[in-house]
Design a protein that fits this description.
It contains seven helices and 20 strands. The protein is of the alpha+beta class. It folds into two domains: 168 residues, Aminotransferase class 4, branched-chain amino acid transferase, N-terminal domain (D-amino Acid Aminotransferase, Chain A, domain 1), CATH 3.30.470.10; 165 residues, D-amino Acid Aminotransferase, Chain A, domain 2 (Alpha-Beta Barrel), CATH 3.20.10. The protein is globular and about 65 Å long. Bound molecules: 2-OXO-4-methylpentanoic acid.
């Protein structure tokens, strides 16, 4: 294997590539991974040399803290290839900042910027041929960190592994998304870890989401844990509601993830004259708005899901189908966001970063 060194990153190239065995037309989200990964260990209070190496399983002690106490965080980002073959990242600074906020909340060390940013840029350069052209194609970037100290004592790990893996993707949801509004289970509570991108937040959603899936719904819209009246976020996305011509989304809080797609859509909407309101929105409000015809759209927004239209929602025993409206905000905002991400429109916000 060829070994080189770029700044302080050690690079061990894979002698072979799996790329020819991948059908880029029929990708399942997050199932195929590129040839390399970045790994960097935090041991005895310091970060060691980051290494880019062939994608492969880890060997870990079965008592590692992550397996017992869920000390694990992650991020979701994307890289895009434009028509001129340039590669772009979208607001990577936002993911970096959020990653370290999650790290602090989960009693983990912050990852230095050069390891996160230089590491991911070098890794993407090495596996750049996995990023295909064309709107809808992207490279999903998954940085994550786990507690690796051994021992089943319930105290924070002292050692950690930071890693970045890359997955070529198309859309996250195929087909329509119907949701159930939570009236019993909760995703997060005040003072908890809802605002962190912690693995446990997702594990906690799996059982209620499985129950929803069994009834034909793809996702749950979570409500506040105390009254179950305020609409907060969905499993993999923040949620937007259009009542008449106003776009409404819940404010970020200790219970809600500060989504990068969420804040980007809000900024595009505000720039382009769509009235936005960042405020609590209740189940009663959308049920009433549905009944009087003013509820026009509900859609989710996230890195993986991009902008996903919600076809209808179930609340207690009633299903509310959303109307077919012309000139949807969801479509307009998705096209404008994608145009920036794929370098097809001027990036008036200075969000994109060329690789
Ligand atoms: C993302 O949108 O990047 C997420 O993290 C959602 C994920 C659970 C697929």
């Amino acid at each position: 294997m060829e070994t080189t060194q770029i700044s302080d990153i050690k690079i061990i190239k894979s002698p072979t590539s799996k790329i020819d065995s991948v059908d880029f037309e029929t990708l399942t989200f997050g199932k195929q991974f590129t040839d390399h990964m970045l790994v960097c260990d935090f041991i005895d209070g310091e970060w060691h040399q980051p290494i880019i190496m062939p994608y492969a399983p880890f060997e870990m002690d079965p008592s590692s803290r992550v397996f017992h106490y869920g000390q694990a965080i992650f991020e979701g980002m994307k890289a895009y290839r434009d028509a001129q073959d340039e590669i772009w990242l979208f607001r990577p600074d936002q993911n970096y900042e959020r990653f370290n906020k999650s790290a602090i909340r989960l009693a983990m060390p912050e990852v230095p910027e050069h390891i996160f940013m230089d590491g991911l840029k070098e890794l993407i350069k090495i596996d750049a041929n996995w990023i295909k052209k064309g709107n809808g194609n992207a490279l999903y970037i998954r940085p994550f960190m786990i507690g690796t100290s051994d021992g089943v004592i319930a105290s924070p790990s002292l050692n950690f592994k930071f890693c970045i893996i890359l997955s070529p993707v198309k859309s996250y949801y195929s087909g329509e998304v119907k949701v159930v509004i939570a009236d019993h289970f909760s995703r997060a509570a005040n003072g908890g870890i809802g605002a962190a991108k912690a693995a446990g937040n997702y594990a906690a959603q799996f059982y209620p989401t499985k129950l929803a899936n069994q009834k034909g719904f793809q996702q749950v819209i979570w409500t506040d844990d105390t009254t179950h009246t305020k609409l907060e976020e969905s499993g993999t996305m923040n949620v937007f509601f259009r009542i008449n011509d106003t776009l409404i989304t819940a404010p970020v809080s200790e219970r809600i993830l500060d989504g990068v797609t969420r804040k980007s859509l809000l900024a595009i909407a505000e720039r382009d004259g769509i009235k936005t309101e960042v405020r609590s929105i209740t189940v009663n409000e959308i049920v009433d708005a549905h009944r009087n015809g003013s509820l026009k759209e509900i859609f989710g927004a996230g890195t993986a899901a991009v902008v996903s239209l919600i076809a209808g929602f179930q609340y207690k025993d009633e299903y509310f189908e959303l109307p077919q409206v012309a000139d949807r905000f969801a479509t307009q905002l998705k096209e404008k966001l994608n145009a920036i991400q794929y370098n097809e429109a001027e990036d008036t916000f200075n969000w994109t970063v060329k690789l």
